[in-house]
TrEMBL record:
Keywords: Receptor. Gene3D superfamilies: 1.20.80.10, Phosphatidylinositol 3-kinase Catalytic Subunit, Chain A, domain 1 (3.10.20.90). This is Tyrosine-protein phosphatase non-receptor type 4. The keyword Glycosyltransferase does not apply. It comes from the Eukaryota.
Length: 195
C-alpha cells in the first residue's frame, strides 16, 4: 500500500506502508491506568489526540455511563496538588516524554447525596474510591466510624455472617485503615454479625 503526498510545484512523493506504520508508532503512546479496583489496564492512544479520547476509551472499558464525576489523575504528581488530564488539551502537551505513562482513574467530583447517582456501577466506583482514601489515610475517619464502614464493606464482599464459615481470623487478609490495630478486626467481626 502506498500513499501519495502532493509537494510544491506539482511534484508527488509516494510513501510505502512500512513508513506509514513506523510514523504511526511514533505518534502512539501507551497509558497505564490504575483503576479503583487496583488493577492496571494499558491503553494505546495517539499522542496528538485530545485528553477526552483517552477518557472515552477508559470509560468504555469500564462500561461507565455517568462519566462527569470521574477523571484521570497524573500519577507522577505529588498528592498535595494533583493534576488532572484536561479533556480539551492534546495528550502530548500534558504528559511528560517517554512511554508508558501512568495515570490514576479517580473520582474527581463527589456528590453530597449518593442517591443522586443513577447507576449502581457508579456507586460502586465511589465505594472503591472512599475505601481506598480511608485505607491510605487521605480521608481521615474516626475509629468507630471506620469500624462500621469496614463492616459494611465486609458484608458487601462476603455476605451475611456465618458462624461455620467466618471463623476467627477471617478478616486477617483485609486492611481497612492505616496502621490497623489487632483488635480492629474483632470490632469489625462483631459489627458484621449484626448486619
Amino acid at each position: 500500500m502506498t500513499a501519495r503526498f502532493r509537494l510544491p510545484a506539482g511534484r508527488t512523493y509516494n510513501v510505502r506502508a512500512s513508513e506509514l506504520a513506523r510514523d504511526r508508532q511514533h505518534t502512539e503512546v501507551v497509558c497505564n491506568i490504575l483503576l479503583l479496583d487496583n488493577t492496571v489496564q494499558a491503553f494505546r492512544v495517539n499522542k496528538h489526540n485530545q485528553g477526552q479520547v483517552l477518557l472515552d476509551v477508559v470509560f468504555k472499558h469500564l462500561d461507565l455511563t455517568e462519566r462527569d464525576y470521574f477523571g484521570l489523575q497524573l500519577a507522577d504528581e505529588s498528592t498535595d496538588n494533583p493534576r488532572w488530564l484536561d479533556p480539551n488539551k492534546p495528550i502530548r502537551k500534558q504528559l511528560k516524554r517517554g512511554s508508558p505513562h501512568s495515570l490514576n482513574f479517580r473520582v474527581k467530583f463527589f456528590v453530597s447525596d449518593p442517591n443522586k447517582l443513577q447507576e449502581e456501577y457508579t456507586r460502586y466506583q465511589y465505594f472503591l474510591q472512599i475505601k481506598q482514601d480511608i485505607l491510605t489515610g487521605r480521608l481521615p475517619c474516626p475509629h468507630n466510624t471506620a469500624a462500621l464502614l469496614a463492616s459494611y464493606a465486609v458484608q458487601s464482599e462476603l455476605g451475611d455472617y456465618n458462624h461455620s464459615e467466618n471463623l476467627p481470623g477471617y478478616l486477617s487478609d483485609y486492611s481497612f485503615i492505616p496502621s490497623q490495630p489487632q483488635d480492629f478486626e474483632k470490632e469489625i467481626a462483631k459489627l458484621h454479625q449484626q448486619h
